[in-house]
Design goal:
The complex is a heterodimer of chains A (314) and B (212). Chain A is mostly helical and 314 residues long. Chain A is built from 16 helices and four strands. Classes of the chains: A mainly alpha (314), B mainly alpha (212). At the A-B interface, helix 15 and helix 16 of A face helix 2, strand 3 and helix 5 of B.
Chain lengths: 314, 212
């Protein structure tokens, strides 16, 4: 850390009478955020009462703790706290009415881009509004419920490894729907388990590792990269062949970005060889199918001709 | 039993019929999965998967029995190819199947107690039993436990490559089965070979030839 930055930080801390006590490492990337993260980057925070000089220690409310390491690795890492939150938060203690501050939603900053395929934030918003997350009374699910702006990383368009995309995206759903935590408390079924609920799948664990929950639980819209119209469980896909077929649903959801990239940037052969978009039944090559059928037809024809000549020559 | 020779002991016949039935189930369920479609009236996908998995495991067990049987009973000798002059013998057999049989020529390699397979059978069975089936088992078990498959090697998707080899092996066995079923009708009577596989007794072609 540069000396100038250190002096600036010390001056800030001295000025407001705050100092760090817990030794949770803070990844310092943006000095402008240090003021906030000194308290919100820790489980416990302390401050000195300037009148009595008494040091007061408080536990930080769980939802207000920022994982600083995750924050400086997330997509919003270049932002400062005040880009999204009121600058009045720099006054301590915070004014109570700041809690009424309206929170931004994704589309307040994000607009549609020219990516291939496009993310289509407008479409996402429309789809979200139709989903059970928005329509179910009292669900209270907002953008932030799934996409924590302090830790969120976009995976679909940035990682080569699909298994990472699957694990990351499913972890978002499992935050609430793991069947072992909040979901059970909410619905009063402590014995529920995701595997038991998906017992009809030939191998639920294999599916959880290789496809996202939304593959079956969300309605696909072609012009939206990641489906956001989460449907009630009764409407979930239950026909295996919907995914395990030539026109697999996965090609319109999980594999959509990869396939679009391969089509736009690589040759046909390399996209066949190196693509990760594989599930039983989804990739039969039309050419190989044709060759196979031709060989089969030749064999049958050969047998038929042989039989006829045998009968004639009998 | 004059003119008949006991060629197929009970274990071979049981193995053979089990093998045939399991292969049929595997081919049907395999085709159903390969051409799966949500709209088509094929075998339900999850049912086809279960059929394929169970039959595949049973076929592996059946293969182990076949392999051990060949090792310990001497049946394996029939699969050992004598390479000296094999090409000529193979050609002779192919000539018989394509031309000679229509001219009522003598069987070039009559089946008897001394020879169970003609050269064409020998090479085909050896390739199917010792190349294609092991390949199908290796790739099939890998697809059953996909965690063991290397995800990517030299830019090749491990899952797609394993699936391709499995399908290729399955296709080869399917074509073999089709031709095998037909060639089996080429006894003196079309049903002779089928009967032999049920009773174990085959007409001693070498004896009838020497008597004739």
């Amino acid at each position: 850390m540069k000396l100038k930055t250190k002096i600036l930080l010390l001056a800030c801390m001295a000025g407001i009478g705050l100092y760090a006590q817990d030794s949770i490492p803070i990844t310092v990337s943006n000095p402008a955020n240090m003021l906030c993260l000194r308290c919100h980057g820790k489980r416990w925070y302390t401050y000195a009462n300037q009148d009595s000089s008494q040091v007061i220690k408080h536990k930080m409310f769980k939802d207000l703790i920022i994982d600083t390491v995750a924050f400086y690795h997330n997509n919003h890492k270049s932002l400062t706290c005040s880009d999204c939150h009121s600058t009045e938060y720099s006054n301590l203690p915070h004014k109570p009415d700041l809690k009424l501050e309206p929170l931004l939603i994704c589309v307040d900053c994000h607009t549609d881009t020219d990516d291939v395929p496009p993310i289509n934030f407008t479409g996402i918003t429309e789809e979200y509004k139709k989903s059970v997350h928005a329509t179910r009374k009292g669900s209270g699910v907002t953008c932030w419920s799934c996409h924590n702006p302090h830790t969120y990383n976009i995976t679909t368009r940035s990682k080569d490894n699909l298994s990472h995309v699957v694990a990351y995206d499913n972890s978002i759903c499992l935050e609430c729907h793991s069947g072992m935590g909040k979901f059970d408390i909410l619905y009063g079924d402590p014995k529920s388990s995701l595997i038991a609920k998906h017992h009809w799948l030939p191998d639920p664990v294999k599916h959880f590792r290789n496809v996202r929950c939304i593959e079956c639980h969300a309605e696909i819209r072609e012009d939206v990269l990641v489906a956001h119209n989460i449907r009630p469980k009764e409407e979930a896909v239950r026909k295996c062949a919907v995914c395990h077929s030539t026109d697999s649903r996965l090609k319109h959801s999980l594999y959509k970005y990869q396939l679009a990239q391969e089509r736009s940037g690589k040759g046909i052969l390399s996209s066949i060889i190196s693509n990760q978009t594989f599930a039983i039944g989804t990739n039969p090559s039309p050419l190989l199918n044709l060759i196979s059928l031709a060989i089969l037809a030749l064999a049958v024809m050969g047998i038929a001709i042989h039989t006829i000549i045998r009968i004639i020559k009998k | 039993m004059s003119g008949k020779v006991y060629l197929y002991p009970i274990w071979i016949r049981l193995w053979h019929v089990t093998n045939a039935l399991l292969c049929l189930i595997l081919i049907i369920s395999g085709i159903s999965m390969h051409f799966a479609s949500p709209d088509a009236t094929r075998i339900r996908f999850d049912l086809a998967v279960s059929m394929h998995n169970i039959s595949g495991v049973l076929l592996t067990v059946s293969y182990v029995i076949f392999f051990l049987g060949n090792l310990f009973t001497g049946n394996g000798v029939n699969y050992l190819i004598q390479f000296k002059g094999f090409r000529q013998r193979l050609w002779k057999q192919m000539y018989y199947y394509t031309i000679g049989v229509f001219k009522k020529e003598e069987i070039p390699f009559p089946i008897g107690s001394a020879r169970k397979f003609n050269p064409l059978q020998q090479v085909t069975y050896a390739v199917v039993m010792y190349f294609f089936l092991p390949m199908i088992f290796a790739t099939g078990w890998a697809l059953l436990f996909p965690d063991i498959i290397v995800e990517e090697w030299l830019g090749i998707n491990g899952f797609a490559a394993t699936d391709f080899l499995h399908t290729l092996g399955g296709f080869a066995v399917s074509i073999f089965l089709l031709i095998h079923l037909y060639v089996a009708t080429m006894g003196k009577k079309p049903t002779d070979h089928y009967k032999a596989m049920l009773t174990g007794y085959h007409e001693d072609e070498s004896e009838s030839e020497s008597r004739g």
